[in-house]
What we know:
861 residues, alpha/beta, 22-stranded mixed sheet, five-stranded parallel sheet, 17 helices, 34 strands, elongated
Amino acid sequence: MASVTFWIIASLCTCTFLHTNGYLIKQQSLCKTTHYTDECGYVGLLWNCSGLGLSTLPSEISTGPYNLAIDISQNDFRVVSNESFLNISLQVSLKVKAIYLRHNKLQSIKGGAFSQFKNLCVLDVSGCGLQKSSLESQSFASLPNVKFLSIHSNSFQHGGYPDLEIPRLSALQNLSIDVFSGFHFNDNFTNLKKLSSVVFHTMGSPFHLTNVTFRGLIDSPIHYLDMRFTNNAYCDISEDLFCCFPFIKGIYFTIGEKCELDPVLRSLKCLQNRTLDYLQIPDNTKTFSGNEIILNEWNCEYLFNICAKYVDLGGNKISGVSVDPWKTMLGQCIEILYLSGNKILRIDTYISVHLFSFYPKLRDLYVEDHNILPPVIHPVYVENHNILPPVIHPVYVENHNILPPVIHPVVSLLYLKKIHFTYRLSPQLQLIDYTDHFIHSVHFQADFTIIGRALEELFISNTNFPINDMTPFQTPELRVIDISNNDCSKIPNIFSSSHNLASVKASKTKINFSAPKSQHLFKNLSKLQTLDLSYNAIETLPKYLLSDQNKSIYILNLDNNLLSSIPFTVSMLTNLSRLYVRHNRISFFQSSDIAVLSELHKVKIFIEGNPISCTCSHLSSLKWMKENPMRFGDWRITQCLQLKQTLSQLFREKTFRTFELNCQTKDWLIYSSIVLFLIVLIIVLLGTMTKYRVHVDYVILRLRHRWKGVMNSKHKNDYGFDVFISFSEHDYEWVVNTMYHELTKRNVKVSLPDKDFIPGLSKADEMLRCIDDSRKVVFVVTETFLKSGWESYAVQMTVTHAFHNNRERSMVVLMKDNVPIIKMPRDLRYVWWSLEVIKQADFENNLDCFWDHIAILLQSQ
């Protein structure tokens, strides 16, 4: 029985061991090893076991010859002691440079927990819920090389900092720690004599900043402070706050939402006569407060006594400046001044003059997003003087003749010539950002000159800057300029002296390249690389606008204009790599466009937002685009106008093949329809001409006569003949031997074809001539007459001619045979009502009466 019990227990233990060992092996296999460089700069391997739910370290950690960083963050460690790292050999532990334990739920760190890691440089125990009591005595002992400690996002607000353990890290240089209500660094922290950087993390509870808050750091060589205490610090900030930082070189300090700028400026007392790399105190504005800050002698007392190279006062609701820092320590040291995001409404003129012209080291000036109103001044208008404009900043008046702030005009504007203003910038000023800084217009004729020998970047977008009245910028070093959102409709050649320009942005400027001045705007700018002319309603560009940039321009932005084709001037830009023509009116690429773009082997075109036509009529354009997809930077998102799909979807092989076949079918349908229409038209025309041959011939005859000037369609009283006789050839003998004889015997002048037609001329022409020269026309109607085509033609021609000339009463029908009316030619039947009809059968017994009757009828009017 005992032996059975023994074997059961042994089996259970074996299973438990195998399960546990298998679990650990599985966890170890989930750890990833990658190359890594830690915060101290050590290069080696990162053994990453984060997020695996570990409570102990997997065994057999091996690094080979490499340094090691261990990441066991976001696991289930509760206690860290020296036993937690038993699986790491002494040889390996000496190569461990960084340990990351963040976001474990640590309840305790035992004394000597990390003592085996003699060369540890980075320790991260942030976000672990630690309290002061969680760190037992000697927790951070025997760590002589730790330089980076992250211990923020813990629960030290309940008992204060672990002020006995953190100071044990005598080599500590970088500390990341929480700040909370009542926090302070006591004298124990004076042991951190190498601490040079502290990053503070707010916990959401407000706190006071007093003269003892940082007292324990007075011996630490802290060079840079990041104090982003927005909505956490009270406004009663001690003026001696920074006295505990004797080695400080740079400060970022903001306490906005609860406080305004004044207490921050007054806290700089201990920084006087110090030299700083930067002083950033932005965004110190109280929430829902309408108060505005005016920089004056009181709040700037300490600021102006600091030698700071870079000063950031952005976003502080500064509404005015009433004190001039030009001759102060700050004014003599400052190289970069950032004032963007304020609403400066009042600034004395001489302060502006000094700011832009006299600061000896000022290179970059940012005054973006302002709405500066003009100072209250009234200039004296005197000819031939360089006078300070009343509303323009910055200003430098030649010969240093600066007007006092309040002067009244003494000369009427009516007697003034054009006034010239010269702005001479500081010889060190390299950058001006004047964006969104409204400048009020002057109400008199003036032109303006800017002289900035060192100026490299100028941003005057959306400023109402008087560009149309500018003379050429005297800025030989200017490389970047932004004149967007200004009126440049009459822009002169302001860049003629700025031969180093590399980037020009002129979006939404109303620039008019049809004006002669604008066509030479970029002349001699052979270094121009980027040009933005978007949102200018441009329909085309002058042919040689960019001829001087044929090898320099890399990026050309013509978005949101009115282009329907690629401007010819683009073909000259041999090094162009980006061409933006989005949101224009390009529906397809013409052969000229393809020729232009084919010359540019490096260019990538962006065409999104154009009404690209995907119809069969533009198949050649679509084929070229499909064959050159790498030329287009956004063809995958460019929509077809008629189809609910992108070009990339249309250009799929199967889809495009189907599209081509449909186009061919449509082309054949159109072609066959046109051919069928033409055939039907020809048949109809032939049928019409056959049916109305006489009328067509008559029209042609009349046109020919009119062209020759021989057309006679008027009534006349003197005719050459009394009658023209139309008859059938079968009736020739009777007409000539009988009818002609009887009529001439009765003094009737008779016209016959054989007698009066001129040989060699058209019978139709001659017939009309004889009809026009005869008082009457007699149709000799017999059975043979009805069978003769010529007589039918003659009848139609005669009827047409008679009715056209209102001589329908001049036609006489002599019915020799007894022919029924129904057999008469249709043309005679239609006008039967207007004809004189003589039937021979009515005079059968007395032919002399017959001929007498005819003679009388023919000689009557």
